[in-house]
Write a structure and sequence with these properties.
Blueprint (H helix, E strand, L loop, with lengths): L4 H17 L1 E5 L5 E8 L3 E8 L2 E6 L8 E7 L3 E2 L3 H7 L12 E11 L4 E10 L2 E16 L7 E12 L12 E15 L16
Antiparallel strand pairs: 1-4, 1-11, 2-3, 2-11, 3-6, 4-5, 5-7, 7-8, 8-9, 9-10, 10-11
């Protein structure tokens, strides 16, 4: 092989080797939950959860910058502990759950802060409005789940803060705070059936 061609060939293979080490995980909707907190007239922080999120995470813990995440959150599964509260929160002047039954997040960049902490930035679509959101994420590790079918499982904890008015929810501003604190606990199982991403000639992935 002509020597000047060797470095170019090796550089061209770098995207392939990076992706070869990455694995695909699917969120476990039973063990993934979104907790939200919002001020209730200055008296307390109203707490609610949303269960049943689904999504795909592809990552190699040695190369977090190449990780990707896509998640769908079923807002109809929102739970505030009271049926009337649930209905009011999903009403057209707030989440408008009938027209927009899901929230959707797609990562754009992943930055490793240290061995176990990440910043995941992406596009969150909520109530038909899309905004950039950054999650502060703790990587809790991967290991084999102790019960059948013993799948390799990854765990994550994440936090962020949203402005509800930024997503078009301005109703009840004298009663409900604008700042929404989110805490996310997520588990994802290794999907061995997932095909590797397609590679295009310029080295990017699809």
């Amino acid at each position: 092989m002509h020597r000047p061609l060797l470095p170019a060939l090796l550089l061209g293979l770098l995207p392939l080797t990076g992706w070869a080490a990455a694995d695909t995980y699917r969120l476990d909707p039973v063990h993934t939950r979104v907790l939200f907190a919002i001020d209730h007239a200055g008296y307390s922080q109203a707490l609610g959860t949303v269960s049943g999120s689904e999504g795909v995470l592809r990552f190699d813990p040695d190369h977090w910058e190449a990780a990707t995440l896509e998640v769908t959150v079923p807002l109809q599964r929102l739970e505030l502990g009271d049926a009337k509260w649930n209905q009011a929160t999903l009403a057209p002047n707030l989440l408008d759950g009938e027209r927009y039954p899901q929230a959707h997040f797609v990562s754009t960049t992943v930055k490793a802060i240290d061995e176990n902490r990440l910043q995941v930035t992406g596009r969150l679509t909520l109530r038909g409005v899309t905004r950039d959101v950054t999650l502060d994420v703790s990587f809790n590790g991967t290991r084999r789940y102790p019960l059948p079918p013993f799948r390799r499982t990854a765990g994550f904890s994440a936090t962020t803060t949203l402005s509800r008015s930024a997503f078009g929810m301005t109703a009840w501003s004298s009663l409900i705070g604008d700042e929404v604190q989110l805490r996310i606990e997520a588990e994802a199982s290794l999907d061995r059936s997932a095909a590797p991403p397609s590679i295009v000639p310029n080295g990017s992935h699809l």
